[in-house]
Amino acid sequence: WILALLVTRYVSVASIAAALLIPLTLGVQTWLTGEWNPAVFAFGLFVCVLAIWKHRSNIGRLRRGEENRFGKKKVDTADSSAGTPPSAS
Questions:
Q1: Domain boundaries in the chain?
Q2: Runs of H (alpha helix) within the chain
Q3: What is the pLDDT of residues 20-40, one digit of tens each?
């Protein structure tokens, strides 16, 4: 998770990467030990899909280029308009 965060500076990408690693890690563990537990793998896959599903709004913002990076301050619309003079109507 930390590696993905450091590389991309997006918390959501790091969380999605960590979620994808759950079934992958369980698959590698099965391959190394030879012990297959379908219930554990199904649960890991379920958690992975659930985590990605919960991040669907973040994925949309990432695709549109609107997702905030970690460590970067948000631009508040009230603050950004504070420097502009009021319009004379």
A1: 2-67
A2: 2-8, 11-33, 38-54, 56-64, 77-80
A3: 999 999 989 988 998 888 899
